[in-house]
Design the sequence.
């Protein structure tokens, strides 16, 4: 069997406001070129996308899935992927990023725990839903975009209801796919979903202390094999990923609260503020205080005008 290509993977974090954890990226400048980036990326939240024009491919560790105008894409958090248009085309897109656990916390039964549509809970997850086959999904998505763009009176309540309807419709579709065979790229030997239980645990428990052995046990591996597989898939060690997640979460707190840096460092799981400062500078290339000041002074309108290549959320720098 050929050795898998060593693909660089980026972790992109999008800030979602706690009171309304929804981010819309839309407009004439949100275009995807026909040049494959050679880099996969994954998010800290659930991504819905719609291709308005042209066609192209989404890639998941070497497996290419074609998309066309009108298609809706569903990418759960922690699933590495990349998108590029067909040769000679530049597809136009809109994206909606949400935190379903927060957005629907009081709308769904307490027993409904798979908020993020985690692929390893479905035997054959559908990442692309065509307009022709799933017209309800297409109609809901386009109405949600208009609602978020208009920002008319009560738009957040309206958008939340529409997003809940979209979410439930997609959940039904994914559940119906359970009887189908899993795609070949989801093999445990190469799939990022192999470490998904550990990623999900880190996402939900980053503020606590836990061992690498516990993460390995969640994936049913020995600690040595877990470290090797984690490094191969995520391109970083489990410890670096945990600390990166904590730094990402602290960025959100620095932007949305007036809590002290000491309090924030403790809230995200660092045992000392000096350790927190050291990791923050290593990852963000600036101190927490500098980051907070920069974000407070930033022009929100300027962020709206960034291109898809510039707007990468938070991305861990290469060393």
Sequence:
């Amino acid at each position: 069997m050929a050795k898998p290509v060593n693909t660089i993977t980026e972790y992109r974090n999008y800030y979602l406001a706690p009171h309304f954890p929804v981010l819309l990226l839309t407009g004439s400048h949100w275009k995807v070129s026909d040049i494959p980036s050679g880099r996969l990326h994954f998010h800290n939240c659930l991504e819905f996308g719609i291709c308005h024009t042209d066609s192209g491919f989404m890639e998941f560790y070497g497996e290419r899935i074609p998309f066309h105008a009108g298609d809706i894409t569903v990418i759960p958090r922690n699933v590495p992927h990349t998108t590029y248009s067909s040769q000679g085309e530049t597809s136009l897109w809109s994206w909606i990023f949400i935190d379903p656990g927060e957005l629907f916390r009081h709308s769904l039964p307490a027993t409904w725990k798979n908020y993020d549509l985690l692929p390893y809970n479905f035997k054959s997850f559908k990442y692309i839903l065509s307009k022709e086959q799933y017209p309800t999904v297409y109609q809901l998505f386009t109405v949600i975009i208009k609602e978020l763009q208009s920002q008319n009176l009560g738009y957040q309540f309206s958008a939340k209801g529409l997003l809940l309807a979209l979410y439930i419709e997609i959940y039904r579709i994914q559940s119906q796919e359970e009887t189908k065979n899993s795609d070949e790229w989801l093999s445990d030997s190469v799939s990022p979903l192999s470490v998904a239980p550990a990623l999900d645990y880190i996402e939900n428990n980053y503020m606590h202390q836990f061992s690498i052995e516990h993460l390995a046990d969640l994936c049913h591996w020995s600690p040595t094999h877990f470290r090797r597989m984690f490094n191969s898939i995520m391109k970083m060690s489990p410890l670096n990923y945990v600390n990166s997640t904590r730094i990402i979460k602290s960025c959100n707190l620095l932007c949305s609260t007036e809590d002290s840096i000491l309090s924030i460092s403790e809230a995200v799981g660092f045992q000392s503020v000096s350790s927190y400062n050291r990791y923050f500078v290593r990852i963000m290339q600036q101190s927490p205080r500098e980051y907070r000041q920069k974000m407070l002074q930033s022009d929100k309108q300027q962020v709206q005008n960034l291109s898809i290549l510039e707007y990468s959320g938070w991305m861990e720098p290469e060393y």
